[in-house]
Amino acid sequence: MARVAAPDGAFVYVEAKRWFVREQGEGAPVVLLHGIPTWSFLWRKVLPLLAEEHRALAPDLLGFGRSDKPSQGIPPVSELATELARLLDRLGIERTALVGHDLGGLVVAAFFERWPDRVTHAVLTNTSVRPERWRGDGLSPLAILGIPLVGEIAASLLRPWMLRLAMRPFLVDRTVLDRATLLGYWEPFERSFRRMLVRLARQPLFTADELARWRRVLVERCGDGKIPLLVAWGARDPQFRVDEASRLARDIPGSRFLAFTRAGHFLPEERPRALARAIAVFLERPQALPSPR
Prior knowledge:
By secondary structure, the protein is α/β, with parallel strands linked by helices. The chain has helices spanning 47-50, 77-90, 103-114, 131-135, 150-157, 160-167, 179-186, 193-202, 208-222, 242-250, 267-270, 272-284, and strands spanning 10-14, 17-24, 29-33, 55-59, 96-101, 119-125, 229-234, 256-260. It has a single domain (10-134, 205-285), classed as Rossmann fold, CATH 3.40.50.1820. It has an eight-stranded mixed sheet with strand order 1-2-4-3-5-6-7-8, with helices on both faces. The radius of gyration is 18 Å and the shape is globular. 45% of the residues are buried.
């Protein structure tokens, strides 16, 4: 079984593509997927807590963090799911629990559609299967990057303090974004991620039809506890709202639902210990967690 030896992560090559992967612990695997504009750094506090009982891994999706930046931009979600399957093969992981935040939640759903037999448990946190939520309702800082020429200029002018301003509305406890943490989230911007963001603003990673299909897949394959599903939410996320999360969970009989009232969009950053504890309990005894009301 291939493993990532370095405690702070290492590079793994899969069919000439370079992934950066953090890995800790032994036992049944659980794979943590980040969203936009973050990377595996988002899971750095959760990873060691889950590693007490599990083989916990957090990769940088292709186009993000320290992983390769494809010349054509971030691959579509369906392709990211395919590449993830290849990475799991390389790491000797046949079946795993999948945890997805933001865009990572869609990768979980797309993976689930094609390889349900490889998923033992699924956890979704602060994501959406509704197209209007991904348009941002005016909140998204990506909008200006979509304007030709203006986007390139804006990307070149990005600085860490701008990232802080962009993240602040999505945090409840803004003290978590101290200088060291901010620079951690900023690191990918010094590794060609600016170019990825410009392309992302102009080239959607999924379609409305795909979102609708992935929602049906979750209902059909997780309903009645076929594959355990936990919907865990930072309740004060202004973009991916908790009422939508609760509704999704109610539509999937047998799913579990938790809302963290003192967290916004970046739940793994604000409530890592509580989230890790909830995931650990869910992986061992899904029925111990509450059902949606």
